[in-house]
C-alpha cells in the first residue's frame, strides 16, 4: 500500500468535502479501499481541525504520483442555495485526469 501524504494547501477555504464522495475509475482500480478510505478520513479530520479547506487538496506518494481531491460547493454557496443538489460532490482523481 502506498503512503499518501497531503501537501500543505496554498490557501484557506470554506469547503467541507461533505457532499457525495466520488472516485474516478482509475483511482478505484489503482488504489486499495484502505488507501481511499485513509485519504477521505484525512480530509474529514482536516476540515474539522481547520474549519474548512481550499477546494483543491493534493496528495502525493513515495513515487511522486499525485492525487487531487476536489470539492464543488463551499459554505457561501450552501448558504445562498446557489447550486443544484447534484453539484454537491467531492471527487478523488489522479492529477493527470483533471
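Sequence proposed for the structure above (98 residues):
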Amino acid at each position: 500500500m502506498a503512503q499518501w501524504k497531503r501537501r500543505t494547501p496554498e490557501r484557506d477555504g470554506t469547503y467541507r468535502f461533505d457532499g457525495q464522495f466520488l472516485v474516478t475509475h482509475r483511482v478505484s482500480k489503482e488504489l486499495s479501499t484502505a488507501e481511499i478510505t485513509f485519504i477521505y478520513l484525512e480530509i474529514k479530520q482536516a476540515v474539522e481541525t481547520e474549519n474548512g479547506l481550499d477546494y483543491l487538496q493534493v496528495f502525493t506518494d513515495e513515487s511522486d504520483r499525485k492525487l487531487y481531491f476536489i470539492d464543488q460547493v463551499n459554505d457561501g454557496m450552501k448558504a445562498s442555495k446557489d447550486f443544484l443538489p447534484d453539484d454537491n460532490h467531492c471527487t478523488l482523481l489522479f492529477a493527470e485526469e483533471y
